[in-house]
Design goal:
Blueprint (H helix, E strand, L loop, with lengths): L1 H40 L4 H21 L1 H55 L12 H31 L9 H5 L4 H8 L1 H26 L3 H33 L9 H6 L1 H81 L1 E4 H21 L5 H21 L9 E4 L4
Antiparallel strand pairs: 1-2
């Protein structure tokens, strides 16, 4: 039964198609006959053909507008496309809304990160950073002591090293002049490169020892404590050698006949010996303690700065993702605008009407053939005049199609959009 029903429907559709084709063929014959009769009534004058063609076009156009069923059929593809475009537009709108929600979330996260940068400086413990809020102040106070101490140690060891190993004292030199000699660099330069290099780089040995002491204290262990003690011993021994050399030279200047030679027991009894040690070794210890303090405070500041740098990196990454989302939104909006333009075009098509131009051209051609057939068969005139009439009729026909912009169209339907 289902197959029989389908066969009946197919036959019915074929019948409708045949009936439609038959009706169109009859319409073509009517136009042919009408062209023949109108040509006969005006003796085939080309001027009349022009008027008649314009009249039949307007009649054909009005008929197309009035045939609602036919127009609905012709507009169906555009309606289908319009429906699909509107669905796509809704999908794109939903996609845009989701992207905008992500943008809002990213903006909130970025603002929270920026607020964290401010809050972490005031309350670092809230972010798991165990440092004092005054660490920055302590650091700069330590730096203010460390810089002059560094300069002092440089000046002391340059002067003391040159005085202890290379300088020849005169009787006017006192203990202070023995420790600090303004011309140490100049005279070392004049003495040679080796002497100059020795006294310039001696202070950096002590700076290096101080740095090692800090590093050994940084890692708590018995071995490191032993290393620190050994470093202090080495520093004290070197300072004692400098003090012994300088104090010995000063002793020899004041030495009288019968006085014993300068020795270690005499050095231990000399106040100048201990003043030189204090000026060097004790100041070096103070420098080392301040350096260790500054490095610890710097480490605390590093924790805070590292945390802030991490926030900055995260903000940068979030900002990149945010910019990508904004670019995606712009792309979606471009697609939506394109769809909206096409929807507007389709709506104007649906609200307008569609002219089946191939049908009109076929009917118009039949009308021309009838007109020319009448000229050729029934109108009495000379051969040349008749030929001119036929050519003029053809020219008028071509101009008619060109005026309506139908001369180059090779598709079936021409769309006339609604105008505002």
């Amino acid at each position: 039964m289902g197959l029989l029903k389908n066969l009946i429907q197919l036959k019915s559709q074929n019948g409708k198609e045949k009936k439609k084709n038959s009706s169109f063929e009859e319409e073509k014959k009517t136009y042919h006959d009408d062209g023949y009769s109108k040509s006969k009534s005006c003796q085939g004058k080309p001027q009349n053909l022009k008027t008649n063609l314009e009249a039949i076009y307007h009649k054909f156009e009005n008929n197309c507008k009035e045939e609602d069923l036919e127009q609905a059929k012709l507009k169906q593809p555009y309606l289908t496309e319009l429906k699909g475009k509107k669905t796509s537009l809704l999908n794109k709108l939903d996609e845009k809304n989701k992207l905008q929600e992500k943008v809002e979330r990213f903006n909130v996260v970025i603002e929270e990160l920026k607020q964290d940068k401010i809050n972490v400086r005031n309350n670092p413990k809230d972010y798991g950073i165990d440092i004092s809020r005054k660490s920055s102040a302590k650091f700069w106070i330590g730096i203010s002591f460390l810089v002059p101490l560094t300069l002092y140690i440089f000046i002391f060891y340059v002067s003391a090293s040159y005085s202890g190993f290379f300088r020849i004292f005169d009787p006017s030199v006192n203990i202070f002049g023995g420790m600090f000699y303004p011309k140490a660099l100049q005279e070392a330069y004049n003495a040679g490169v080796l002497e100059l290099g020795f006294i310039i780089f001696i202070p950096f040995v002590f700076y290096g020892l101080g740095y090692l002491i800090h590093m050994f204290q940084h890692k708590k262990s018995i071995v490191n404590y032993i290393k620190v003690i050994l470093l202090f011993v080495v520093t004290f021994v070197f300072d004692a050698i400098l003090a012994y050399q300088i104090d010995g030279k000063l002793y020899d200047l004041d030495k009288v006949y019968g006085s014993p030679d300068f020795s270690i027991p005499l050095a231990f009894q000399s106040s100048g010996f201990w003043v030189i040690i204090f000026a060097g070794f004790v100041s070096y210890i103070i420098w080392g303690l301040v350096f260790d303090f500054v490095m610890k405070e710097h480490a605390d500041r590093d924790k805070l700065q590292s945390f802030i740098n991490g926030i900055d990196i995260e903000i940068t990454n979030k900002q990149k993702e945010l910019n990508q989302l904004k670019d995606s939104i712009a792309e979606v909006e471009d697609v939506m605008n394109t769809i909206k333009v096409r929807c507007s075009e389709l709506e104007s098509i649906v609200d307008g009407f569609i002219l089946p131009i191939q049908n009109y051209r076929a009917l118009c051609s039949e009308y021309l053939q009838g007109w020319q057939e009448c000229i050729s068969a029934t109108i009495a005139m000379g051969h040349d005049e008749k030929r001119n009439y036929l050519e003029d009729c053809r020219i008028i026909y071509d101009e008619h199609l060109k005026k309506l912009d139908l001369d180059t169209d090779d598709y079936q339907n021409k769309v006339y959009r609604r105008t505002l």
